[in-house]
Write a structure and sequence with these properties.
- The structure is a single chain.
- This protein is about 35% helix and about 30% strand.
- It is built from 7 helices and 10 strands.
- It is globular and about 55 Å long.
- Bound molecules: adenosine-5'-triphosphate and magnesium ion.
- Adenosine-5'-triphosphate (ATP) binds next to α1.
Length: about 230
């Protein structure tokens, strides 16, 4: 049986207090197994980003539990939670959030440098991952010199450089034209598959979602498996 990387049990998330309370997620259960690829769909405001934040330990549920590698996020103190997240999860967002004053190589090396790896080793590993996303020749270019799709590929490399167990992506192709979106999505599917990582991606695009092993849809706070 394959290993469970992330597990959400009876998750709910409410915002603000009564009488203005809104329930965004209600009794959500999800198992992300090793090597899984899962697309999360749903209308705008249905709670997709909220769910991804909870899975990444970036937000706390109102009730229920999120486990990363069998450990409950809420049972960890902040330092352990940061460490667990930084060691095991990679994040990609709709906007790349690259640092403009650094070149592609330094942007990708940054998570390793922050975890105090030696500069030469961090850069060597970053270059290896840039190569995997096809951008080794652009290593010394700044984000402003890259296309939208290339910037997203650098952001993917930065997320993958720590060799996470799971890549969490929130509309990573939402800002790209159809062709670039397709290429970037395939890159994420292929790389996570090759490395045996799991992949959870929020997307509006059904044709992209079809490339994942599983599709889930948030409707009225509940998560449904769709075919
Ligand atoms: N911090 C917050 N305080 C109050 N309400 C919030 C907060 N964060 C999110 N919400 C509400 O929760 C609901 C779900 O938001 P969320 O961002 O998860 O939606 P989404 O499915 O990602 O939408 P989109 O497709 O537009 O990105 C929205 O109604 C939003 O206003
Ligand atoms: Mg969102």
């Amino acid at each position: 049986m394959s290993k469970t990387i992330l597990k959400a049990i009876a998750l709910s998330r409410k915002f603000s207090e009564a009488p203005n309370e809104i329930t965004v997620l209600q009794d959500v259960n999800l198992n992300v197994q090793e090597g899984d690829s899962i697309a999360i769909m749903g209308a705008s405001g249905s709670g997709k980003s909220t769910l991804l934040h909870l899975l990444g330990g970036l937000d706390s549920p109102s009730s229920g539990v999120v486990e990363l590698l069998d450990k409950d996020f809420s049972a960890m103190d902040e330092r352990d939670r940061d460490r667990a997240r930084n060691q095991s999860l990679g994040f990609v967002y709709q906007f790349h959030h690259l640092l403009q004053e650094f070149d592609a190589l330094d942007n990708v090396a940054m998570p390793l440098l922050i975890s105090r790896m030696q500069t030469s080793q961090a850069k060597a590993q970053a270059l290896e991952v840039l190569n995997k996303v096809g951008l080794e020749p652009r290593a010394l270019h700044s984000p402003s010199e890259l296309s939208g799709g290339e910037r997203q590929r650098v952001a993917i490399a930065r997320a993958l450089v720590i060799k996470p167990k799971c890549l969490l992506a929130d509309e990573p192709t939402g800002n790209l034209d159809r062709e670039a979106a397709s290429a970037v999505f395939d890159l994420m599917i292929n790389l996570t598959h090759q490395e045996g990582m799991s992949f959870v991606v929020v997307t509006h695009d059904e044709s992209l979602a079809m490339r994942c092993k599983r599709r889930l849809k948030l409707i009225s706070g509940h998560l449904h498996e769709v075919s």
